[in-house]
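[step 3/7] inverse_fold.run input=structure_tokens len=359
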């Protein structure tokens, strides 16, 4: 019975694939691409992953981060694709994607600081803290006359460890529901506050009702909320009118590919050369295993110090480390049971515990 149901589902999916709803799709390009799929979702699910690494994508405005992931799946015919931190649909810029075995290291990349360029419109407020929730019939408030030095002093008040209210229209969960769904249903809910870190705010320009800034911040920061709070501090209201992510950890926007460039390079067989290997993006100590033992890692077997041919970097008991083969490929991530120094100096029966086996 289960087999018959599965076959029926696949037949229906193949016959009517264009009627499947796009997930929050706001971009004509994505809709057209989905309508002209060269293979069905069933084929993607069964596809063997070709790429195993990090892809730096320049996400265009108007699509969700999930839409961008779907596009990479379509382009590469690859199922295992994930991101390390969302960008709002209206935002553009760097979106770090993990492909293949690299999806297993995504959580090691999410806590990195990020840098944004933001444009803030002064004089109006928004229910969503961005341009989507602006009342077009509202009369703009008068923007105070400020010198750049005065404005810099005000911006400095938001630097450091501060409390920030999560936007009402966000994907944060409250009582098991996403805030934006509760808000759109008209349910009354108090958005939670979070403690965040803003490391710096640089004023790029200030012209009448437009303010452009660069923000370097820690995980969990909402630039929309920052724009709203700046408007409240100035007494005229404000909302985020444009946002571009410039960096995420060590990843930079100028190294990122557009969707069109990604598709072209894939078709030319050159995409892999523009990706980063797992070993290139993890700043961790490492142990390299012998060829004889490397094949046992996928079965979860733990080596002794006799199976280790080299130790790289410094680490202490409890630290995350990479487990590599002689060719430099990362086979697993683990928690060290001994320090790097001890491992080099004396034999040890247990050197680590597996965290994630990648192959």
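[step 3/7] decode complete -> sequence:
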């Amino acid at each position: 019975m289960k087999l018959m149901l599965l076959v029926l589902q696949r037949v229906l999916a193949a016959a009517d694939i264009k009627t499947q709803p796009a997930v929050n799709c706001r971009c004509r390009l994505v809709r057209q691409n989905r309508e002209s799929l060269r293979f069905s979702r069933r084929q993607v699910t069964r596809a063997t992953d070709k790429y195993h690494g990090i892809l730096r994508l320049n996400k265009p405005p108007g699509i969700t981060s999930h839409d961008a992931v779907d596009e990479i799946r379509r382009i590469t015919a690859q199922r295992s694709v994930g991101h390390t931190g969302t960008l709002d649909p209206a935002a553009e810029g760097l979106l770090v994607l993990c492909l293949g075995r690299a999806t297993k290291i995504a959580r090691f990349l999410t806590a990195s600081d990020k840098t944004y360029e933001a444009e803030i419109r002064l004089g109006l407020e928004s229910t969503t803290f961005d341009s989507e929730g602006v009342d077009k019939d509202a009369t703009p408030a008068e923007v105070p006359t400020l010198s750049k030095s005065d404005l810099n002093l005000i911006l400095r008040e938001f630097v450091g460890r501060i409390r920030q209210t999560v936007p009402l229209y966000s994907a944060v969960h409250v009582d098991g529901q996403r805030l934006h769904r509760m808000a759109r249903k008209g349910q009354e809910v108090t958005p939670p506050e979070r403690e965040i870190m803003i490391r710096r705010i640089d004023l790029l320009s200030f012209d009448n009702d437009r303010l452009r800034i660069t923000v370097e911040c820690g995980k969990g920061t909402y630039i929309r909320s920052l724009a709203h709070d700046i408007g409240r501090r100035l007494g005229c209201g404000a909302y985020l009118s444009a946002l571009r992510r410039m960096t995420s950890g060590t990843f930079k926007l100028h190294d990122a590919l557009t969707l069109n460039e990604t598709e072209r390079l894939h078709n030319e067989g050159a995409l892999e050369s523009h990706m980063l290997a797992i070993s290139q993006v993890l700043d961790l100590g490492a142990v390299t295993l012998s060829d004889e033992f490397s094949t046992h890692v996928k079965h979860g077997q733990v080596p002794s110090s006799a199976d280790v041919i080299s130790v790289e970097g410094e680490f202490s008991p409890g630290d995350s480390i990479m487990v590599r083969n002689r060719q430099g490929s990362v086979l697993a991530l683990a928690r060290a049971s001994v320090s790097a120094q001890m491992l080099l100096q004396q034999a040890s029966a247990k050197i680590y515990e597996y965290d994630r086996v990648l192959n």
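[step 4/7] annotate
Confidence is low (pLDDT under 50) at residues 1-43.
The chain is about 25% helix and 30% strand.
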